[in-house]
User: Which sequence fits this backbone?
């Protein structure tokens, strides 16, 4: 109830009281008896009951006057809404991102979110009994946690139950959600946040920013990136890369720990620990190599050994170490121990040998057997797409993807493409071949090596897939006697399958749209569990697959498990690394303890109904005319 409306109620009460007093005074006036009144009643045969009804019409007149006054008051109240907005909807947008978990003071237990709740309670106290409140939680995926209500005690309980999450904030989406609740003139949006700089510069006039600057002046250490990958041919080895950001003004000792987690998110052992010294405001990029372990989730934690910090949510990051890929390789032609050893040293492989006459391989149903790579030595048969990429080592015949030219003897790699991935690990200049042939590439093929002017190594692609052709057999050279041959095979893998650096798969950020292909999943619905918290229960929700893909936005940092019919399909890592939550905290003074004053809670104009007050006043005038025609002599009778 606004002050002006309270004045109107007081005026209406005073007028009604005055009217009642006048009526009572009138009833106390001496009556003037007219002798012909009885004759008049006798002539018209007016009964006593009818005379009593006439007397009762006088209180009815009073009630009608009060009704008339009430209708007129409603019209005035509706008209007054143009200048005094009551029945307002207050939309509280409360930041619950990781930043609100910052300690107000080092060593204290109070966090920024406690200050946010204190300010939100003050805003609720400023509302009148006819106003309403809405509470929106601003996180990576903002949502309405309490719809429009006039129960402010319930609103307080909902706000007190909010907790800081390991997530980033999405102010744009939160304000868009607030804009859809009511028309601009009927609501006020109050954004309670630790960092107003993240809010969009263009926002409506109804948006009020209640900023609560953090007092965290201690240094902050954060993990800005973290990723893991398998090492091709590393016999189960993997390596990780990470990046740390330190915002302190003095040198600090930092402990970095890499630990393996089980399928429920519980710690299963420390794999590596490293102590670092960071200079003031340093960004450190590091890596941990030659690690071994089973596939699964990993957690990297960095913490200060000297001093303390108030923001701890960004000190950890998650990644998922995928299973090492098993390559199915088909070798067509004479068997070679040199080739088998090189293939096994480069990648985890399952090698099948086949003669040229038995190519292509088929199963019992006469369907082609699928392979990732086929190595052709000697006579090359007609290739099919189902057997994957092709590596031709001194192969010959009309089915080669390139034509053969002149015969070569005692030659080597005089020129080679140094920017090619194939020569990333070795220099082939000293390799000597006894015999071979030159190759004639196609128009779209790329020559990777020459002997003089003769191409001897060609990379290209045909409808059957990519291929790499070498103009001599490795056994006809000293290639197989050098460490360069396994490195050549590894380079061939990178040219055909892509660099193994692509195995670094960083975790997604909270709120980032995720599209994950699940080829092993059946059609329908999968269960998404997480974030996994060890022995504590994790939230579960059902997600419908779209074209075999999981499309979802995960709000909070941690590990998530995708299941279907009790079978685990995938693990997903979500980290704050890479989001704006891991940047240095904005410095500021401690937020005031006093709640906002009433005059600070400025209201915005709310439009009234265009014709509502006119209807009320017109109805009051109509009743006034009726009352005047019926009882106009009541003051003089």
Assistant:
């Amino acid at each position: 109830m606004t002050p002006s409306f309270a004045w109107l109620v007081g005026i209406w009460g005073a007028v009604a009281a005055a009217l009642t007093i006048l009526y009572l005074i009138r009833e106390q006036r001496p009556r003037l008896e007219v002798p012909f009144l009885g004759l008049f009643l006798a002539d018209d045969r007016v009964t006593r009951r009818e005379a009593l009804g006439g007397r009762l019409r006088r209180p009815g007149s009073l009630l009608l006057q009060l009704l008339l006054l009430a209708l007129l008051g409603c019209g005035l109240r509706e008209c007054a809404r143009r200048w005094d907005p009551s029945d307002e909807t207050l939309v509280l947008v409360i930041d619950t991102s990781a930043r609100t978990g910052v300690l107000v003071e080092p060593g204290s237990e109070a966090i920024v979110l406690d200050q946010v709740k204190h300010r939100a309670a003050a805003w609720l106290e400023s509302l009148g009994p006819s106003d309403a409140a809405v509470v929106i939680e601003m996180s990576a995926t903002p949502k309405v946690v309490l719809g429009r209500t006039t129960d402010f005690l319930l609103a307080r309980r909902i706000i007190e139950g909010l907790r800081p999450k390991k997530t980033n904030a999405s102010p744009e989406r939160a304000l868009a959600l607030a804009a859809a609740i009511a028309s601009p003139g009927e609501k006020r949006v109050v954004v309670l946040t630790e960092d107003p700089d993240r809010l969009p510069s263009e926002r409506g006039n109804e948006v009020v920013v209640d900023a609560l600057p953090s007092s965290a002046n201690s240094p902050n250490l954060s993990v800005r990136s973290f990723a893991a990958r398998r090492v091709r041919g590393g016999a189960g080895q993997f390596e990780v890369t990470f990046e740390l950001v330190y915002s302190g003004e003095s040198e600090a000792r930092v402990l970095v720990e890499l630990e393996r987690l089980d399928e429920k998110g519980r710690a299963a052992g420390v794999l590596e620990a490293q102590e670092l010294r960071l200079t003031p405001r340093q960004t450190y990029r590091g890596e941990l190599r030659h690690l071994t372990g089973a596939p699964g989730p990993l957690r990297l934690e960095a913490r200060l050994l000297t001093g303390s910090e108030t923001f701890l949510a960004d000190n950890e990051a998650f990644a998922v170490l995928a299973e090492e890929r098993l390559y199915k390789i088909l070798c067509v032609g004479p068997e070679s121990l040199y080739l088998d050893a090189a293939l096994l040293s480069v990648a985890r492989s399952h090698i099948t040998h086949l003669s040229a006459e038995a190519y292509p391989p088929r199963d019992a149903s006469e369907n082609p057997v699928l392979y990732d790579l086929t190595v052709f030595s000697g006579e090359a048969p007609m290739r099919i797409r189902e057997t994957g990429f092709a590596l031709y080592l001194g192969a010959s015949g009309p089915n080669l993807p390139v034509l053969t030219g002149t015969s070569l003897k005692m030659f080597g790699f005089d020129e080679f493409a140094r920017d090619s991935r194939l020569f990333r690990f070795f220099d082939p200049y000293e390799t000597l071949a006894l015999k071979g042939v030159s190759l004639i590439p196609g128009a779209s093929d790329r020559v990777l090596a020459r002997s003089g002017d003769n191409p001897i190594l060609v990379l290209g692609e045909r409808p059957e897939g990519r291929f790499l052709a070498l103009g001599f057999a490795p056994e006809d050279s000293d290639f197989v006697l050098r460490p360069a041959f396994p490195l050549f095979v590894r380079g061939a893998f990178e040219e055909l399958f892509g660099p193994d650096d692509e195995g670094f798969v960083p975790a997604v950020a909270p709120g980032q749209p995720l599209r994950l292909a699940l080829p092993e999943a059946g059609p329908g619905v999968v269960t998404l569990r997480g974030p996994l918290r060890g022995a504590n229960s994790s939230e579960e929700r059902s997600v419908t697959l779209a074209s075999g893909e999981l499309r979802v936005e995960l709000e909070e940092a941690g590990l998530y498990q995708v299941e279907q019919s009790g079978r685990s399909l995938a693990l997903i890592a979500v980290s704050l690394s890479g989001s704006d939550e891991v940047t240095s905290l904005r410095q500021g003074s401690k937020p005031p303890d006093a709640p906002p004053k009433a005059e600070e809670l400025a209201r915005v104009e709310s439009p009234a109904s265009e014709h509502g007050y006119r209807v009320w006043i017109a109805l009051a005038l109509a009743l006034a005319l009726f009352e005047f025609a019926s009882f106009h002599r009541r003051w003089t009778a």
Observations:
- Residues 513-571 form one domain.
- The chain is about 20% helix and 30% strand.
- Residues 48-80 form the longest helix (33 residues).
